């Protein structure tokens, strides 16, 4: 029934999920992608599970109307709160960022102590702890919310003394606790990688779930026999719920020239 | 037609406007107040004028249904983008925070050089510059957006080294330019007053528009013959569009025991 040439829907509260979209585009070069960034209601991190679920459902319904064959929730907070209900309510495959990140962390840890950082919503939900323990019950996990990282990235202060000071304050207790692997549980955080490497030193592995999520998307589409034909010519659409120009400017920092234009669509 | 015992509606994107509500409650002890905080869509600061106008209209319509006799826009960004349309579209008096703040700044300046800080939306709008020049065309104005201050206040880091470092980065160019008065053009910023005083030194006057806005509300209600009777017994309602418990916890930091409970109401 579903057309294999139908696009994959990818959504996020804003622009952070473009790190995931970029990996999907890189690893699945024949798949078309529709990206929705809910910039009119960003951020999801501090908001309640009910509200994030309501927003996620509205976006999934909109992507369904656009004819997507599968949905990637490219936002840790939305994955934490809404992956379950969307999987229950939708016919199509729904992929989140938490399980792939958890799997990569378990594969990477040498000492068996994994750190997880994310928004308040993601950390409070305990989604990473559950996903990690479902794979490997016998690891130590230390988690903490880092609510200032998203505004610092959006301010463009990815290499600023204040960001370094704040990162030290957030992460030194994790270093003291001797984590050996750190899950970047928010799609904005990969832009802080060089600074985080400085603060954490060379012995802590950084896990960015974008790559794993794209790989999981590939596996899922193949299993469901939904993958695009090898010769297919992909199309990309980017849609934001607020000011498309601002999205375009910020988005090109993440995606470069792949993003030619941005449409606007109001939800709610 | 309107009942003088009807409540005054006060709204903000979130909790910041409680600094204004508190002053209204203090200066107008017989007025009932309904406060609406749009916590499901906070912050307004980085969002487009169109989106902020749409949200403000929805909130004004909701407050209208609750029978308010007047509306105070206790949010600088919403005032900058929506005061005009709400004044046009509504029968009742609408008061914003920008004009009162501008008036207080003009009264306070000794050297004739006023600094203005606020969200990206407020600063981009130029609303303070227009309001200040309408009162006193012959002043110098230096304005800049300080987008990290709101998340820092919400993180509770009002006296933190990182906040001091960020405040210095934002404000030192204003000190170099020799401003003598600084308008805190965002209702979150009054919580940073002690730190800002440290950074700016004793010679710069800080203008917090809450007091002036409450005074303006009193004048407006009197002129419109809408003031509550001197013996009236006020009632207070607090409504948020997201998680009322979180609003209550954060809100009591601003308002103390006046806030006994918070209702939830979804908009949009």
Structure description:
The structure is a homodimer of 268-residue chains. Chain A is of the alpha/beta class. Chain A has 2 domains: 8-97 and 211-264, 3-Layer(aba) Sandwich (Rossmann fold), CATH 3.40.50.1860; 98-208, Rossmann fold, CATH 3.40.50. Helices cover 46% and strands 16% of the residues of chain A. Chain A is built from 11 helices and 10 strands. In chain A, the strands form 2 sheets. A 6-stranded parallel sheet of chain A has the order 4-3-1-2-9-10, with helices on both faces. In chain A, strands 6-5-7-8 form a 4-stranded parallel sheet. In chain A, helix 11 (244-255) links the parallel strand 9 and strand 10 (263-264). In chain A, helix 1 packs across helix 10 (209-223), helix 2 packs across helix 3 and helix 8 (161-176) crosses helix 9 (193-200). Chain A is globular. The model of chain A has no long low-confidence stretch (mean pLDDT 95). The A-B interface holds A 39-42, 46-48, 50-51, 54, 147-148, 150-152, 154-155, 157, 161-162, 165-166, 169, 241-243, 246, 266, 268 and B 39-42, 46-48, 50-51, 54, 147-148, 150-152, 154-155, 157, 161-162, 165-166, 169, 241-243, 246, 266, 268.
Briefly characterize the structure.
By secondary structure, chain A is an alpha/beta fold. Helices cover 46% and strands 16% of the residues of chain A. Chain A folds into 2 domains: 8-97 and 211-264, 3-Layer(aba) Sandwich (Rossmann fold); 98-208, Rossmann fold (3-Layer(aba) Sandwich), CATH 3.40.50.
Question: What layout of secondary structure does this protein have?
Answer:
Two copies of one chain form a homodimer.
Chain A: E1 8-12, H1 18-27, E2 33-37, H2 49-65, E3 70-73, H3 76-89, E4 94-95, H4 98-108, E5 113-118, H5 120-125, H6 127-135, E6 140-145, H7 149-154, H8 161-176, E7 181-185, H9 193-200, E8 205-208, H10 209-223, E9 236-240, H11 244-255, E10 263-264
Parallel strand pairs in A: 1-2, 1-3, 2-9, 3-4, 5-6, 5-7, 7-8, 9-10
């Amino acid at each position: 029934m579903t057309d294999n040439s139908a696009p994959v829907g990818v959504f996020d509260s804003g622009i952070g999920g473009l790190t995931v979209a970029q990996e999907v585009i890189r690893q699945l070069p024949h798949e078309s992608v529709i990206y929705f960034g809910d910039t009119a209601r960003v951020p999801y991190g501090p908001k309640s599970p009910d509200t994030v679920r309501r927003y996620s459902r509205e976006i999934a319904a909109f992507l369904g109307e656009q004819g997507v064959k599968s949905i990637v929730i490219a936002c840790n907070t939305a994955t934490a709160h809404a992956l379950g209900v969307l999987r229950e309510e939708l016919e199509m495959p729904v992929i989140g960022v938490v399980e792939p990140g958890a799997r990569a962390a378990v594969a990477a840890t040498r000492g068996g102590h994994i750190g997880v950082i994310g928004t308040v919503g993601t950390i409070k939900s305990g989604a990473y702890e559950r996903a990690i323990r479902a794979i490997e019950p016998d690891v130590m996990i230390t988690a903490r919310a880092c609510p200032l990282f998203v505004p610092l990235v959006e301010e463009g202060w990815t290499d600023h003394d204040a960001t370094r000071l704040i990162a030290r304050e957030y992460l030194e207790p994790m270093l003291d606790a001797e984590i050996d692997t750190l899950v970047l549980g928010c799609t904005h955080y990969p832009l802080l990688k060089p600074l985080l490497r400085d603060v954490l030193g060379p012995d802590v592995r950084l896990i960015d779930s974008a790559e794993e999520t794209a790989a999981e998307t590939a596996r899922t589409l193949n299993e469901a026999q939904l993958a695009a034909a090898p010769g297919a010519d992909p199309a990309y659409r980017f849609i934001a719920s607020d000011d498309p120009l601002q999205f375009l400017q910020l988005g090109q920092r993440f995606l470069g020239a792949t993003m030619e234009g941005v449409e606007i669509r109001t939800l709610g």
